[in-house]
UniProtKB/TrEMBL annotation:
It is a multi-pass membrane protein. This is Fatty acid desaturase domain-containing protein. Keywords: Fatty acid biosynthesis, Fatty acid metabolism, Iron, Lipid biosynthesis, Lipid metabolism, Membrane, Metal-binding, Oxidoreductase, Transmembrane, Transmembrane helix. GO terms for cellular component: endoplasmic reticulum membrane. CDD domains: Delta9-FADS-like. Its cofactor is Fe(2+). GO terms for molecular function: iron ion binding; stearoyl-CoA 9-desaturase activity. GO terms for biological process: unsaturated fatty acid biosynthetic process. The histidine box domains are involved in binding the catalytic metal ions.
Length: 271
């Protein structure tokens, strides 16, 4: 639930508006986001929109060119670069400020964060199934919280530093399966930065992508609708024109003929 609040809520819905949600789902997304205990939704969305618009520049809040530690957590431990503040003021978040439900959540965010992220989850284990208070506090306030935070941060760090780039080799974001496992599908980052409006954040659908699975379920019951995806033809053209050749279907690999002349081989045919 914590992960879904970040991946399905703050990221795919509130930041990228990659699908539309009816009131029950919007309430669920805000509840799950509160459970994550991160920054206010307004700050999260603004930072992420700046990140996409000015990725890997001084205006990027967690610029991966400043190293793993900075992009992972260091950016949260220091003052923002002046460019982040300046460019952040140019980002339009009127869709959030004009949403009464989000405005209510923003107004009482600190209370939602304290109660939903820490207090209520800590009370449930001892009162419902006899867990010790020590284990409950340790599990909820430390182990669960640390894993959740680092899973989110890994998208900004590891998925911007390590992995292949089948869609656009000109950018830092990469396909990182380990991050996708922990971050519920957010590690297909080369694809996501190439097609940020895709609600799946990946071409691969439900493979290591629990968020997409849940959004598809909500679509079936009518709570999520107008889920955006690019056409297969567009993805193919982008992968062929700008990818690093590692796409399983449309990639190419470098080979050498008998005279040691370099040539391009269609990897999908050679397979």
């Amino acid at each position: 639930m914590t992960g879904f609040g970040i991946t399905g809520g703050a990221h795919r819905y509130f930041t990228h508006r990659s699908f539309k949600a009816k009131l029950p789902l919007r309430i669920i997304l805000l509840f799950c986001y509160s459970l994550a205990g991160q920054n206010s939704l307004k700050d999260w969305v603004r930072d992420h929109r700046v990140h996409h618009k000015f990725s890997e520049t001084d205006a990027d809040p967690h610029n991966a060119k400043r190293g793993f530690f900075f992009s992972h957590v260091g950016w949260l431990m220091m003052k923002k670069h002046p460019e982040v503040i300046r460019k952040g003021r140019l980002i339009d978040i009127s869709d959030l400020t004009e949403d009464p439900l989000v405005a209510f959540h923003q107004k009482y965010f600190i209370w939602f964060k304290i109660l939903i992220c820490f207090v209520i989850p800590t009370l449930i284990p001892p009162y419902l199934y006899g867990e010790t208070w020590f284990n409950s506090i340790k599990g909820v306030c430390f182990v669960r919280y640390i894993i959740s935070l680092n899973s989110t941060w890994a998208v900004n760090s590891a998925a911007h530093l390590w992995g292949n780039k089948p869609y656009d080799k000109r950018i830092n974001p990469s396909e990182n399966l380990a991050v996708s496992f922990f971050a519920m599908g957010e590690g297909y980052h080369n694809y996501h930065h190439t097609f940020p409006w895709d609600y799946r954040t990946a071409e691969l659908g439900k493979m290591l992508n629990l968020t997409t699975l849940w959004l598809n379920i909500f679509e079936k019951i009518g709570w999520a609708y107008d889920l955006k995806t690019p056409s297969e033809d567009l993805v193919r053209k982008v992968a062929e024109n700008h990818g690093d050749g590692t796409h399983l279907k449309w990639g190419h690999e470098v080979a050498y003929d008998e005279n040691d002349n370099k040539k391009i081989v269609d990897s999908s045919k050679s397979a």
